[in-house]
Write a structure and sequence with these properties.
Shape: flat
Oligomer: single chain
Helix content: 40-55%
Largest sheet: 2 strands, antiparallel
Strand order of the largest sheet: 1-2
Strand content: under 5%
Order of helices and strands: HHHHHHHHHHHEE
Number of helices: 11
Number of domains: 3
Radius of gyration: 35 Å
Number of strands: 2
């Protein structure tokens, strides 16, 4: 839109390129290219007055004073995304049935509406997979939707916890790595204790050795560290 607005201002006003560039947030060379009709694409002008961004009086002020900076009457409205299914890249859309099947198999308490929001699909597709009437059912293999990149672990956990709460059952706790975690903690603790013992032994050994090559009493030569024989 900035380029289209700049095109309209170039064609319909006597504002300077600096003023137009400043108002539209463009580089002056971009405005120059639009004016010389050498821009990469042919633009259709967009009227900022009709859009409510400028007034005739504001444009007249700018035309009367080349140093005047145009003030926007109101900012253009941001394009808002309508509510609907989550967008999924084309390359991942073929993985949706596998992700849906995984949720149905491992978390049957999750509703079709929650699955629809998580995966970004229709309830018809979910129902077909749940009832095993999907046209490609023979090739559908349940796969973790997080691993497939269809949703995040946090969103999946939140949906499962919400569904479990609604069903009146405690939310599942992942204990797959509990034993490994305890073993790792025990190993780290043993390694830390061994490091402490090694450090204490090294300090004790160094304390038994007298050092020579002192420059003056109490101050040693930093480039020498020869133990007394």
């Amino acid at each position: 839109m900035p380029h289209a607005t700049a095109s309209w201002l170039v064609e319909n006003t006597s504002l300077t390129f600096d003023q137009i560039a400043e108002f539209c947030g463009l580089h002056i060379l971009e405005v120059q290219a639009i004016a010389d009709d050498t821009a990469a694409t042919k633009l259709t002008g967009r009227d900022p007055i009709r859009a409510g961004e400028l007034t005739h009086a504001e444009i007249e002020k700018g035309q009367a004073d080349s140093d005047y900076r145009l003030q926007m009457h109101k900012a253009p409205e941001a394009v808002r995304r309508t509510r609907g299914p989550r967008y999924t890249p084309v390359s991942k859309r073929q993985d949706k049935p596998d992700g849906i099947a995984w949720i149905i198999k491992n978390h049957p308490e999750v509703s079709d509406g929650q699955i629809s929001r998580l995966i970004g699909t229709t309830r018809t597709t979910i129902a077909a997979i749940r009832e095993r009437t999907h046209w490609n059912m023979a090739n559908i293999t349940p796969k973790d939707p997080v691993t497939l990149g269809l949703t995040t672990q946090r969103e999946l956990d939140a949906a499962v916890a919400k569904a479990a709460k609604a069903a009146g059952v405690p939310a599942p706790t992942d204990t797959r790595f509990e034993g490994d975690r305890e073993a790792l903690i025990e190993q780290l603790r043993a390694e830390r204790e061994q490091h402490v013992r090694d450090a204490e032994a090294a300090l004790a050994e160094a304390g038994d050795e007298a050092l020579r090559d002192e420059i003056v009493p109490g101050i040693r030569d930093p480039f020498k560290n020869t133990p007394v024989e």
